[in-house]
């Protein structure tokens, strides 16, 4: 049984233009200790999925309208806010895209770190908390931890703040860490350091990580399994190697073709996926990718593709994937 | 942190000098200058409209200064010397609190002002405490209960108070609670037998006299601050760091108080200086209605009566109050927002 199972989740937002189905039937499994990559273009619903797991959907606009999220056998979408706060932060922790705003500017770093430690260790004494905080800061690679604890977030660089966020998330030794584009706002060199840190920490703590990004390169480096989302649905879910070797969904194929490879011709133009993601309220009825898909047929515009199993641990949601694979095999 | 405050205090001096230069320039224009003409017109317009409530007021535009008084004024402001010299002499006088002699009361201006100051400060501070004491909690509750019945009803109430001019509230209160029901005294800051009362009695007497004027002062003052607090808190509730706090496992209610509240006080702290000055300089209408001898009434009467030394004195004192108010609000901001103290440069205005 997976540790975290998102089953056929549907989330809608109430906007000025009416109700939009931002997440429509998403299923994702996460096993204990594994690293799962979640990729997709901006706006496809990665953050909303993560926030739903955390019970942090913006209220009252966002609502879970279908499906379930099982954590350790319990459906957490039906929990009250209080029940949820015993899981939030303790079992499932999250770090965010924007380290610049994720920390409270008016509280010292040390207080914010101590706060999360105290939430999960209410019996801890002041001295213990201080000691643990120093250890955590050290652990996430913050030099001069003693001094940093007494500083305010604006005195820290973006990378340092993200390390503080990671330290806060780790303070409860969570079983799942959701990292929502934790490096997008950082310099490339800092990005690499943070990724390295997450990998080391995972080896040490053994938690499962959901790593959200639109960078397939990062996925290749970090994750063992990958879920490709498009416009609020899962297009394809597969082990990383399998996906990189032979993507089945036309959108996943497009994504992979658009990353540079060592064996491609130097300075040649990378293929891109034509068009843009339509606004969710303007999506086609059938396959949500049909207006951009080179292989779209009439049926694609009207029939919603079912999630089909390709192999063990591998699914795809495309009406024509088998057909397309045969064509590819024939032309090869 | 201390250095920030020291820097901030050192800034008072040049700013104050700047203000005095402005005020001094004004004195060069009166009497007989454009200011005097302006006053004439204002007074005339006022008497025609019949709205002016001043007592010692003749239809022609207030009491006219005698030649002797004008000569005295010119001596005080050093009209016979070069501008620079007379400015510094005048500045020297101001620093020793020699603000000239009131043409109306024929006593030193500082004495006149000093006798009004405690009254104004009492009302100013009371209004301030009550305003913030009501608006901050009310704003917090309104933000948490956004769009509920409580939120809508309280909005309607504060805007109702805001829409009615404070002197109307004052007159209504006075007619109803003082004249008809006789629950409260009609006017004044204290009773005539104030000096004979015990300490406790004195306090009660002041309170008794203060209830109605305070209602008049406060009725309109809730709307802006309450709404500022509410909106500011709502912004902060949607902020990333509140989400972080909840993601850490903190209950929503606690996150509101531990994380959002302090941050949403920042805009309030910024406006604190303005509020305190406005409040202390008072409203001459309310002071007139309740016959309170405060700053506002003094300023108004001095203007109508052409009591220039008092007008200038009040100008100097209220600019000083304004400066102090600004510093107070900077200190408040620095207390709630650590980013201020470490910023480069002293002033963040
Ligand atoms: N508060 C909200 N109200 C209305 N719609 C929202 C809200 N938050 C998100 N959405 C919609 O949900 C969709 C998914 O947004 P989400 O933030 O999950 O995208 P994402 O995949 O995380 O993108 P990015 O890579 O840019 O972070 C978007 O189309 C967005 O318009
Ligand atoms: S279902 Fe049709 S439109 Fe959608 S990805 Fe497959 S081929 Fe393209
Ligand atoms: Mg996102």
Give the quaternary arrangement of the chains: heterodimer
Report the radius of gyration of chain B as a whole number of Å.
24 Å
Mean pLDDT of chain B: 78
Instruction: Give the tally of structural domains of chain A.
Output: 2
Task: Specify the structural class of chain B.
Answer: mainly alpha
- What's the CATH topology label of the largest domain in chain A? Rossmann fold
Would you give an account of this structure?
The complex is a heterodimer of chains A (332) and B (349). Chain A has helices at residues 46-54, 81-85, 99-102, 109-120, 126-139, 145-149, 158-170, 188-205, 216-222, 240-245, 250-257, 298-302, 321-331; strands spanning 4-15, 18-30, 35-39, 62-71, 74-75, 92-95, 176-180, 208-213, 225-230, 233-239, 308-311, 314-316. Chain A is α/β, with parallel strands linked by helices and 332 residues long. Chain A folds into two domains: 4-91 and 174-263 and 270-331, Rossmann fold (3-Layer(aba) Sandwich), CATH 3.40.50.300; 103-173. Chain A has an eight-stranded mixed beta sheet with strand order 6-7-8-3-9-10-12-11, with helices on both faces. In chain A, strand 1 and strand 2 form a beta hairpin. The longest helix of chain A is centred in the middle third of the chain and has 18 residues, at 188-205. Chain A starts with a strand and ends with a helix. The radius of gyration of chain B is 24 Å and the shape is globular. Chain B starts with a helix and ends in a 7-residue tail after the last helix. Chain B is mostly helical. Chain B contains 17 helices and no strands. The chains are: A alpha/beta (332), B mainly alpha (349). The structure holds adenosine-5'-triphosphate (ATP), iron/sulfur cluster and magnesium ion. Residues 46-47, 97, 180-181 of chain A line the site of magnesium ion.
């Amino acid at each position: 049984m997976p540790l975290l199972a998102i089953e056929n989740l549907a989330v809608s937002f109430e906007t000025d233009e009416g109700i939009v189905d931002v997440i429509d039937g998403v299923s994702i499994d996460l096993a204990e200790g594994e690293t799962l990559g979640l990729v997709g273009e901006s706006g496809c619903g990665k953050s909303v999925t993560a926030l739903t797991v955390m019970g942090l959907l913006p209220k009252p606009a966002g609502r879970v309208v279908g499906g379930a999220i099982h954590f350790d056998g319990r459906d957490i979408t039906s929990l009250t806010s209080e029940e949820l706060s015993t899981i939030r932060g303790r079992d499932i922790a999250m770090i965010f895209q924007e380290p610049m705003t994720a920390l409270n500017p008016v509280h010292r770093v040390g207080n914010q770190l101590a706060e999360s430690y105290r939430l999960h260790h209410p019996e801890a004494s002041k001295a213990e908390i201080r000691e643990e905080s120093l250890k955590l800061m050290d652990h996430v690679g913050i030099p001069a931890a003693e001094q940093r604890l007494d500083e305010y977030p604006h005195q820290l660089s973006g990378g340092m703040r993200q390390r503080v966020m990671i330290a806060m998330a780790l303070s409860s030794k969570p079983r799942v860490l959701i990292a929502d584009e934790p490096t997008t706002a950082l310099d490339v060199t800092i990005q690499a350091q943070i990724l390295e840190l997450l990998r080391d920490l995972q080896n040490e703590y053994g938690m499962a990580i959901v790593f959200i990004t639109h960078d397939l390169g990062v996925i290749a480096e970090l994750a063992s399994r990958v879920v490709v989302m498009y416009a609020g649905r899962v297009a394809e879910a597969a082990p990383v190697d399998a996906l990189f070797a032979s993507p089945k969904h036309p959108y996943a194929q497009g994504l992979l073709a658009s990353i540079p490879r060592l064996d491609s011709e130097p300075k040649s133009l990378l293929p891109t996926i034509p068009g843009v993601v339509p606004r969710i309220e303007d999506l086609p009825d059938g396959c949500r990718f049909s207006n951009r898909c080179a292989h779209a047929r009439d049926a694609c515009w009207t029939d919603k593709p079912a999630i089909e199993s390709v192999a063990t641990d591998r699914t795809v949601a495309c009406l024509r994937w088998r057909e397309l694979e045969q064509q590819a095999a024939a032309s090869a | 942190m201390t250095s920030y405050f020291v820097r901030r205090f050192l800034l008072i001096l040049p700013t104050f000098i700047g203000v005095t230069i402005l005020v001094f320039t004004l004195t060069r224009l009166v009497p007989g200058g454009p200011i005097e003409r302006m006053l004439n017109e204002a007074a005339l317009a006022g008497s025609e409209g019949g709205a002016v409530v001043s007592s010692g007021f003749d239809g022609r535009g207030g009491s006219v200064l005698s030649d002797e008084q004008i000569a005295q004024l010119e001596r005080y402001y050093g009209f016979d010397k070069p501008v620079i010299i007379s400015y510094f002499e005048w500045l020297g006088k101001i620093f020793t609190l020699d603000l000239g002699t009131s043409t109306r009361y024929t006593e030193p201006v500082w004495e006149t002002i000093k006798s009004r100051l405690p009254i104004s400060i009492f009302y100013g501070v009371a209004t301030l405490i009550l305003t913030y004491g009501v608006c901050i909690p009310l704003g917090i509750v309104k933000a948490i209960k956004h769009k509920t019945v409580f939120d809508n009803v309280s909005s309607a109430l504060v805007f109702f108070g805001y829409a009615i001019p404070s002197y109307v509230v004052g007159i209504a209160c006075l007619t109803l609670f003082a004249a008809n029901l006789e629950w409260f005294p009609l006017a004044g800051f204290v009773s005539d037998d104030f000096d004979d009362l015990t300490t406790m009695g004195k306090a009660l007497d002041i309170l008794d006299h203060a209830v109605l004027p305070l209602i008049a002062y406060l009725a309109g003052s809730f709307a802006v601050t309450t709404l500022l607090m509410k909106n500011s808190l709502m912004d902060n509730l949607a902020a990333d760091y509140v989400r972080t706090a909840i993601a850490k496992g903190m209950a929503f209610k606690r996150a509101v108080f531990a994380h959002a509240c302090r941050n949403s006080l920042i805009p309030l702290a910024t406006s604190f200086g303005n509020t305190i000055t406005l409040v202390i300089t008072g409203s001459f209408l309310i002071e007139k209605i309740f016959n309170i001898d405060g700053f506002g009434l003094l300023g108004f009467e001095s203007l109508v009566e052409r009591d220039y030394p008092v007008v200038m004195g009040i100008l100097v004192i209220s600019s000083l109050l304004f400066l102090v108010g600004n510093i107070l609000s900077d200190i408040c901001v620095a207390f709630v927002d650590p980013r201020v103290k470490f910023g480069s440069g002293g002033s963040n205005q």
